[in-house]
Inverse folding.
């Protein structure tokens, strides 16, 4: 019997992998039939053994596992969202970045040099250089990399230089960010295309780029030129195909969302009052300690005199330091606390030595006027601006009366920067960074470090240091584009990073859209017409040219991991797009919640449930740098890995078990907390992890066995969910409870949804229970509208789930939600098949104080739930509470996807 079951498993794994042919099955049909008969005769009530053979026969009938079905299932696996929803559905819009510039050609920042050695590359390598920028934001690293690549290309021989081809993919989920980048790029195109141009025109274009990029408001002539650029883009993007410069490509599927933002900016200025925008803009005082402490020059090598003074200050005891307003963080300080302490020491040393931060005088000007200085050649258009020269001579601040007069004039003659407004946000007031000089400072540092200009160009003798630094930077960018001519392309792509990467990995020729089934079984009663907008079918982009790269030389994904389950998501969903080269890597930076982490190990464990040293063995990657206060840099190892480089089976599966439990019952969160850890993975991500592990090199049948124990509710473990708040302490890795069998049946409906859509595309065989839907045609899309339990409070913790329950379970919704951990342990009612939980919502919106949710369910299951008059509530898994009133099954409606 045992051999028979093993044979069925081996045949199925072979069919799935393509190593067992139909010819082999025909040649051995008699022996296989005997084994099959023996199982049917001797298994008795062992339904699992019978199911193994039934699934093998089903796969055999399908004919060596149909390639089209496999591709369709893989498409579904890539388009299913991996993140839970949050109640705040307005996209955050980060207009101006907060990190130092870096050229991916040269480094991961000044502290992490890592040059691409172009001279050592083959001709084929040079023709396939590709960079991906996820969460591209203001594209600062794109422009820096262009400059770096152009500079590096000059070191190549003439023959190699002709072969150089570079592709830049600018990817962001926020269409307004990409539309803003396009405005800058079209203004740059003027500099690329017009080398010999009148100086006044050149200065106007540079000033328009400058104020669009870093300004809250801008002169009228800059605003006029920006609006001309927006209208030009609206026309060009509306043409078929879009008419764009040779070095810019916009994904056609992204164009409608970009046009929405551009149209908004072309009209919103009519109601956007400069005076009101300036009133809400409250920049930090130039004398603020924070401005001093977070100077971009903090990480540079101190002058010997200042360094000596800092060392002397460090030797003082805490009470003496407090006399200088410096507070020692103590032995248990977090990395951020240590960093702030060092910054305060540096600030104190600067004060003693009477050193002023860069652009100090223009800071004082900005404090009085709230505007940057335009180039001095244009000051004649701005009455009173020449007073800055008096400030420079006297080294004083702007007098109050003079500042008020200038602000009144600016309010009348300047215009607000419309590109700082989110087209999908009704607030209509732009978010303005408290330190507007941060980006000009970072650009100044980049210019100096790369040799574009000496530091003295932006010193105290400069009439407009911020403008000069930014203009120098963008002129160098235009020169790079011009210098590389038709050998560089910037691709603009709007979408969610993990999903877009998954699409790139699929065959572009298989571009048929993956849809939810149009037809419903004839036995299923027609539902009422949908009461709110129909959702679009999930599609794969047909428009991305086949010549565009699927693999990249390097990638930078900003701080997307802060929002996207950290390192584990980066490794599983982002790392595969790298080329298998030693210098290829993907990097990220943590900005969102630095103060809450006690160590790099805690940061790593909270997201991956592994320690940094274990990531290569479990996940098949190279950890180049895991510095929370600096960069997180990962490399790609050749896969599959040798067996001796992997962990043993028992070690491996205690970790996925923990991962599974921590997804279905996530760590708790405090909605009032300033810094919150976001752990948004849902069960789709768990199956994505299993697929990744199989690619790492672990045997396929391991995952078959593991998934089968889940589907037949036979999981026994000594691991329990972590019910505390995140971050999750590293000590949790050794926490154990007595071995017991847990209940996974409440999540069977979601297992069914995922596997019906994807199991034919998994790299390991799965036997679906008879009660499960067997095909994507058995799954439908449904929706409901529920009243909130309390006045709608929107939060940005992505942990919203759905709970379906049969009336008479003996608990109200709040009790059921709080009892989920006990239900997992088998300690609480309801009985099996009287409750289901979905971590996956297809959409969630609050419209007119009503929560409207869409979700997938099998037609067969939904029939039973309607017949038995089930109820559904939307609940917040991390906050451990329902957020809507129960919604009866009679009011759930089918969503047409035609």
């Amino acid at each position: 019997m045992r051999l028979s079951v093993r044979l069925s498993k081996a045949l199925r794994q072979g069919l799935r992998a393509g190593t067992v042919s139909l010819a082999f099955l025909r040649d051995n049909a008699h022996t296989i039939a005997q084994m099959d008969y023996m199982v049917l005769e001797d298994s008795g009530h062992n339904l699992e053994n019978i199911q193994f053979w039934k699934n093998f026969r089903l796969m055999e009938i399908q004919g060596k596992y149909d390639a089209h079905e496999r591709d369709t299932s893989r498409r579904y696996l890539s388009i299913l969202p991996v993140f839970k929803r949050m109640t705040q559905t307005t996209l955050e819009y980060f207009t101006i970045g907060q990190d130092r510039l870096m050229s991916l050609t040269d480094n991961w920042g000044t502290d992490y040099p890592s040059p691409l050695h172009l001279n050592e590359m083959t001709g084929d390598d040079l023709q396939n250089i590709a960079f991906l920028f996820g969460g591209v934001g203001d594209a600062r690293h794109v422009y820096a990399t262009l400059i770096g690549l152009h500079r590096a290309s000059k070191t190549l021989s003439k023959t190699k230089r002709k072969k150089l081809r570079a592709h830049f993919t600018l990817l962001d989920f926020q269409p307004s960010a990409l539309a803003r980048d396009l405005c800058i790029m079209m203004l740059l195109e003027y500099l690329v295309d017009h080398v010999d141009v009148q100086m006044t025109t050149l200065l106007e274009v540079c000033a328009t780029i400058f104020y669009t990029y870093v300004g809250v408001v801008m002169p009228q002539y800059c605003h006029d030129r920006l609006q001309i650029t927006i209208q030009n883009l609206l026309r060009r993007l509306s043409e078929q195909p879009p008419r764009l410069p040779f070095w810019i490509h916009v994904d056609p599927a992204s164009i409608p969302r970009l046009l929405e933002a551009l149209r908004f900016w072309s009209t919103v200025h009519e109601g956007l009052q400069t005076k009101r925008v300036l009133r809400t803009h409250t920049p930090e005082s130039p004398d603020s300690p924070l401005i001093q402490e977070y100077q971009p020059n903090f990480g540079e090598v101190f002058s010997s005199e200042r360094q000596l003074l800092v060392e002397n200050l460090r030797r003082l005891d805490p009470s003496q330091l407090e006399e200088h307003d410096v507070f020692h963080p103590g032995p248990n300080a977090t990395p951020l606390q240590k960093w702030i302490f060092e910054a305060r020491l540096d600030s104190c040393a600067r004060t003693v030595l009477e050193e002023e931060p860069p652009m100090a005088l223009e800071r004082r000007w900005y404090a009085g006027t709230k505007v940057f200085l335009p180039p001095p050649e244009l000051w004649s258009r701005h009455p009173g601006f020449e007073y800055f020269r008096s400030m420079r001579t006297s080294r004083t601040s702007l007098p109050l009366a003079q500042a008020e007069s200038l602000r009144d004039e600016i309010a009348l003659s300047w215009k607000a920067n419309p590109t700082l407004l989110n087209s999908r946000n009704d607030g209509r007031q732009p978010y303005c960074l408290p330190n507007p000089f941060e980006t000009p400072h970072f650009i100044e540092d980049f210019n100096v470090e790369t040799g574009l200009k000496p530091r003295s160009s932006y010193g105290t003798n400069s009439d407009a240091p911020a403008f000069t630094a930014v203009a120098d930077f963008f002129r160098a960018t235009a020169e790079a584009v011009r210098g590389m001519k038709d050998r560089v392309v910037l691709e603009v792509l709007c979408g969610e990073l993990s999903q877009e990467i998954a699409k790139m990995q699929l065959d572009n020729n298989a571009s048929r859209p993956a849809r939810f089934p149009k037809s419903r079984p004839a036995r299923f009663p027609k539902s009422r017409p949908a009461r709110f907008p129909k959702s679009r079918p999930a599609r794969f982009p047909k428009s991305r040219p086949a010549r565009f790269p699927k693999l990249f030389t390097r990638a930078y994904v900003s701080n997307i991991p802060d929002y996207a389950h950290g390192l584990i998501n980066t490794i599983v969903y982002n790392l595969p797009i790298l080329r298998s080269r030693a210098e290829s890597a993907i990097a990220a930076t943590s900005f969102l919640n630095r103060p809450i982490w006690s160590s790099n190990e805690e940061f790593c464990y909270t997201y991956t449930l592994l320690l940094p040293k274990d990531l290569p063995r479990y996940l098949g990657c190279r950890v180049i740098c895991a510095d929370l206060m600096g960069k997180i840099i990962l490399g790609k190892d050749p896969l599959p890995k040798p067996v001796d480089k992997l962990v043993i089976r028992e070690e491996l599966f205690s970790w996925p078990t923990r991962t599974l439990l921590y997804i279905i019952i996530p760590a708790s969160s405090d909605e009032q907390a300033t810094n919150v850890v976001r752990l948004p993975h849902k069960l789709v991500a768990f199956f994505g992890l299993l697929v990744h592990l199989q690619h790492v090199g672990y045997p396929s049948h391991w995952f078959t066995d593991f998934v089968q124990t889940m589907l037949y509710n036979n999981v026994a473990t000594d691991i329990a969910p972590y019910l505390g708040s995140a971050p999750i302490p590293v000590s949790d890795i050794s926490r154990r409870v007595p071995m017991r069998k847990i209940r996974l049946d409440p999540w069977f409906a979601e297992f069914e949804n995922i596997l019906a859509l994807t199991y034919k595309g998994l790299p390991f065989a799965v036997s679906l229970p008879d009660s499960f839907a067997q095909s994507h045609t058995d799954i439908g899309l449904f929706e409901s509208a529920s009243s909130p339990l309390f006045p709608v409070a929107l939060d940005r913790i992505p942990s919203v789930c759905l709970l379906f329950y049969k009336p008479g379970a003996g608990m109200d919704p709040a009790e059921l939600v709080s009892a989920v951990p006990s239900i997992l342990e088998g300690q609480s009612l309801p009985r099996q098949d009287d409750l289901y939980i979905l971590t996956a919502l297809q959409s969630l919106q609050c419209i007119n104080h009503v929560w409207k949710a869409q979700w997938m369910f099998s037609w067969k299951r939904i029939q039973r739930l309607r017949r038995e008059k089930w109820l559904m509530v939307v609940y917040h898994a991390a906050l451990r509470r329902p957020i809507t009133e129960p919604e009866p099954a009679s009011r759930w409606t089918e969503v047409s996807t035609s």
